[in-house]
UniProtKB/TrEMBL annotation:
GO-annotated cellular components: cytosol
Protein family according to the UniProt entry: Belongs to the PNP synthase family.
One Pfam family hit: PdxJ
GO molecular function: pyridoxine 5'-phosphate synthase activity
Subunit organization: Homooctamer; tetramer of dimers.
Gene3D superfamilies linked to this entry: Aldolase class I
Catalytically driven reaction(s): 3-amino-2-oxopropyl phosphate + 1-deoxy-D-xylulose 5-phosphate = pyridoxine 5'-phosphate + phosphate + 2 H2O + H(+)
EC primary class: transferase
Binding-site residues, 1-deoxy-D-xylulose 5-phosphate: 28-29, 64, 69, 119
Pathway entry: Cofactor biosynthesis; pyridoxine 5'-phosphate biosynthesis; pyridoxine 5'-phosphate from D-erythrose 4-phosphate: step 5/5
Higher taxonomy: Bacteria, Pseudomonadati, Pseudomonadota, Alphaproteobacteria, Rhodobacterales
Residues the record marks as site: Transition state stabilizer: 170
Source organism of this protein record: Thermohalobaculum xanthum
Active-site feature positions: 62, 89, 213
Protein name as catalogued: Pyridoxine 5'-phosphate synthase
Length: 271
């Protein structure tokens, strides 16, 4: 999988922001396990501190409208005690905007949200809601939050994200990961090629490119090798893998897989 496509050829094109590929660890499902039983164990803040020690560059937490995993008190605790940057995932609602403006996390990622979904499904529909979203993100940017928009690898959505003034996009990698897991290899390669093309397109518009959703040890390398991608956000897989190997081991292994993919694509000076 790591050699899929001519990723290395991209190094010959535009000046790319290679550097260290950042890893954001999503701790939502530590809270899911806690909430299944009630009480305070396992503690998402403790998981965040372990992630930092294991090589994470940031912590992601999704405060959903239904509070099914991360809660308001979790966000307050993370903001008070966390040394790593916090990336607050949230829907584009007045309630969530007010919470973000009160806490002023390092980053805010705007995601679609439906009550009946198991997890975030697909990317945000930006092109059909440009005016509202432009007004929604403006005060967040003014408050100093890095605003990103979680979208599908679709040219129309990327162009719309650029028009509304979002400095960052996060490409939804779920279709690629699902195709790989289900053995649909031709579809997997098509989805990966689409992600590669749209990462390059977004970069050409001046957007910072992130990616995430469903990434595993088996699927992370090709995405990590995209020269335009600056950050990967990974959570559910790491929390699940922690059951078998421990959270520290899972994060360290993912960190190494990302760094190795970067080095193999662009040389020893890149991590």
């Amino acid at each position: 999988m790591a050699g899929t496509g001519s990723v290395g050829d991209a190094a010959q094109g535009l000046a790319r922001p290679l550097g260290r590929l950042r890893l954001g660890v999503n701790i939502d499902h530590v809270a899911t396990i806690r909430n299944a039983r009630g009480g305070g164990h396992p503690d998402p803040l403790r998981a965040a501190r372990m992630a930092e020690a294991a090589g994470a560059d940031g912590i992601t937490a999704h405060l959903r409208e239904d509070r099914r995993h991360i809660t308001d008190s979790d966000i307050a605790a993370l903001m008070e005690a966390l040394e790593l940057p916090l990336n607050l995932e949230m829907a584009a609602t007045d309630e969530m905007q007010a919470i973000a403006l009160r806490h002023r996390p390092h980053a805010v990622c705007i995601v679609p949200e439906k009550r009946e979904e198991r997890t975030t499904e697909g990317g945000l529909e930006v092109a059909a809601d440009e005016n509202r979203l432009a007004h929604f993100i403006a005060p967040l940017r003014e408050a100093g939050c890095r605003v990103s928009i979680f979208i599908a690898a679709d040219r129309r959505q990327i162009e719309a994200a650029a028009r509304i003034g979002a400095p960052v996009i996060e490409l939804h990698t779920g279709a690629y990961c699902d195709a790989h897991a289900e053995g649909r290899l031709a579809e997997r390669d098509t989805e990966l090629a689409r992600l590669r093309e749209m990462a390059s397109f977004a970069h050409s518009l001046g957007l910072e490119v992130h990616a995430g959703h469903g990434l595993t040890f088996d699927t992370v390398a090709p995405v990590a090798a995209f020269p335009e991608v600056m950050e990967l956000n990974i959570g559910h897989f790491l929390v699940g893998e922690a059951i078998f190997s421990g959270l520290d081991s899972a994060i360290r292994r993912m960190r190494e897989a990302m760094d190795r993919a970067r080095r193999e694509a662009f040389g020893e000076g890149v991590a």
